[in-house]
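Hey, sorry to bother you again with one of my protein questions. There's a protein on my desk that I can't quite get my head around. No rush at all, and the record is pasted right below.
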Amino acid sequence: MMKPPRSKPLLRDTEAPIRSRPRGKRNPAQPQLPFDPMPERVEPALAQLKSHPPKGSEWSWELKWDGYRLAVHIEPRGIRILTRGGHDWTHRFPAIEQAARALGSATMIIDGEAVVLDEEGRPDFGLLQQSLGASGKQTGNRASDAVLYAFDLIYLDGHDLRGVEYRSRRHLLEDTLNVANNDEAGSIRLSETLDAEPTVLLEHICRLGLEGIVGKHLDRPYRSGRTGDWVKVKCVQSEAFFIVGYERSTASPAAFGSLVLAAYRGADLVHVGSVGTGFRQAEIIRLRKMLDTLRWKRKQPPLPYSGSADVIWVQPTLIAEIEFRAWSTDGKLRHPSYKGLRERQDNADVFRLG
C-alpha cells in the first residue's frame, strides 16, 4: 500500500514567519479594552442634499429627524453627550443621559439626533429650541423631554467601527438597543429603517408634514463630512441664516413685523429677504428683547440693502433656522417660515450662496 504524499508546509523554513498586527496600547482610562482606544470625539458623517433619492438596493432609508445632532459617549468614567461642534451638553439632556446609563456596562459611541415630539408624535424643532432656551446666552437650560433617535454606532466595547460597512454597524446598533430595551432607556430609541421605494416613501413622508428622508449606502464605512455616503432629500428646504434686523410692527410696539435675513457670499453678508410667519407670540416678545440688546450702532447697515422698509439693524449674531419653498430670481427666499434659533455651539452653518 502506497503512503500518501506528504503535505507541503504552509511556510518554508526560509520564509519569514507570519506575525499578527501589533496590538494597540492599553488606554489607562480603559484598562479592560486592549484594542482600539475610544476616540475623544468623532467628526460626524453628514448627508449631502439631493433633489431626488438615488436608485438602487444598496441604500437604506430612514426618517430625517428635525433636531440637534448628538454623539453619546458611554465610557467607564461616565456619560458624555457632545454636539456636532464638539461641545459637552450632557447637562442639557438629562433624560438621554439617564437612558444611556441604562444601556448597561458596555462602552460605545452612539450617533443620533435629539428631538422633542409634539402631541401627534412628530419632531418639532421649535419645541426643542424652547426647551433649550436657544438664545446664545441661556446655555444652562435643559431639554428634559428630548428623545435621542439613534441611527449609527461608531464604537463598541474596544472596537472602533468607523472602518466597518454601514450594514454591519446597523446590525450592531439594533442588537445593542434591543438587548437594553426597557423603560429606563426610553429616551434613546432606534431610528427605524423604512422599507419602501424611496420616491413613494418621500411622497408619504411629505404628506405627513415631516421633513424628509435620509439614505445611507450599506457598503460604506463611517466617514466624517459630506462624502456622498449619506444623502438627504427634503420635503421643503430648511437652512440657517443670520438675523440682521427687524421691521417694526404696526400692531404692537413690543413686537416686530418681520425679521431681516442674511446669508454669506464669500466673506460678505447678503440680504436674502425677510420672514414674518412661523412665530408664537411669546417667541416674538422674547426675540424682540434680544434684538434690542444687539442694535447696530453704525450709520451704514451691516450689509447692502436696497429695500424701502424701515429696518432696525442689529449685529449679525443670532442664527435662525428658516423653512422655505424656493429661491426667487432676485435671490430672495420664497414663502419663508421661522422654525427657531440655532446655537453656535450646535455648529450651526449659516447658508452660503454659490
Observations:
- The domain at 237-346 is CATH 2.40.50.140 (OB fold (Dihydrolipoamide Acetyltransferase, E2P)).
- The chain has a mean pLDDT of 85.
- Helices lie at 94-101, 125-132, 166-179, 198-207, 281-292.
